[in-house]
## 1
Amino acid sequence: MNFGILIVQGLVNTFGPTVMAAFAAGVKVDSIAYMPVQDFGNAFSTFVAQNKGAGKINRVKEGVRSSTKIIIIFCVIVSSLIFIFSKDIMYIFINKSEIEVISLGVEYLSVVSLGTRVILAYILASTWLSERGIWCDIPIGWALADIIGIVYYQKKINL
């Protein structure tokens, strides 16, 4: 994730200091919000490994369903809070007098994996969306990564 952000930062830099500042603040919020999701993933992989090792495949299937529900609920709640309070959250990282930076940062957070996000960022930024294409690549990249993960686990569980 951090390597992808670094590569996207090069693209962001071409849009000037205002977009750079907004992106930097947005990425901080994005990273903070993403940390618990990473921990869910770590806990889930341990759960799967232990139960698969014990031959409890049905428990793995049940865990996939439960974990998916928990993660979706968590992500909806966090995304909603960030969407609702995006301007206030930006004030944590950006001075209130930086109106344009805050506006762009709020936009980033409002439409808020590695390879997919980087490629999407460059493709979408070269369209009429301009820097907004970078903001849009994040939810698209997360959704694609989630879909691929769900399909992968479904195939593994059904083996």
## 2
Amino acid sequence: MFSQTVEYAMRAVVCLATHEQRVMGAVEISETTDIPQSYLIKVLQQLTRVGIITSKRGKGGGYSLAKPSNKISLLDIISAVDPIKRIKTCPLNLPSHCKSLCPLHSKLDSSFAQLEKSLGDAYVSEMIDRPKNKKSHSK
């Protein structure tokens, strides 16, 4: 459903969120996420440009989240690299559909709107495997 770029962006952000307390280099992110390094660099640049991640050059440099993982929605990531394309005009080009979407495209666009809402309500923090509190498992 999502492009390879979106998948890679999500992997990279979740990787950084998993290691939220430190800066990670592109090579380490690439190896950890199985993303080709040249492709990863382009994705990281897009994510940096919109303020999802920050980059630091030089010794000890690398990438980290620009804000907490519970403040970054999946929609933020998707919108940064390959936004969901909403339907604004009827692709059928029928004269009777020039003022509004036909029923089919109206339903499709409504589905896209619901998808955007769901993704906007899903945060990176929900995607991270966090260790469970040992006390909650003991009886």
